[in-house]
Amino acid sequence: MNFKPENITNLILDFGGVIYRIDHYKQIEAFSALGIGNFGMLYSHAIQSSLFEQFECGQISPDEMLFELKKLIGKDDLSKEKIYHAWNSILVGFSDQVVKLLKDLRTHYNLYLLSNTNSIHYALFIKEFKENFGLDFDSLFFKTYWSFKIGLRKPGREIYEFVMKDSRLNPEETLFIDDSPQNVKGAIKSGLPALLLNQGMTLVEVFDASLNLKSI
Q: How far apart are CA 82 and CA 92, in angstroms?
């Protein structure tokens, strides 16, 4: 969907892959090291089993997810700690450059966050941000929307409509930025202008030196 950069006053940003560095291959390798060679088929950037969808929508607890995951992968002998470690291996860390950008952007735009995530990962990266940067992550945004807290996840049309209605945003003044093609398509189908952050791109490249949106 086309948008006019000069009209944009609201930015809705994805988290993993846009603000926070993640590595799906590290997670696949970690589970492979535990003897689970097909984890990439169970959980990937584009396709997820219903177990992970339920977890990202907050429908099951962390303990329930880990218990069901052990059954799903057929490794009842694995300890909870080993599975927990492999599950979290996807998390790489915050980029200092992107965090600085966010601090600057909030003086030019109304910032919102919309992320598919789960309570285990959330607890870790929220703590990481506080320890590394000395402030609460949510303080960078007008409002944050985490899938496990609101019970909806991308790319379902409902989550985009919920965010727009809840924050009373005008689509003509709003841009959603995500690194997943299916999430960008979902936003556009819901009437929300969206920009795909292609593989290898960083959020910094979307803006010029004056923090204006580039015509990408």
A: 18
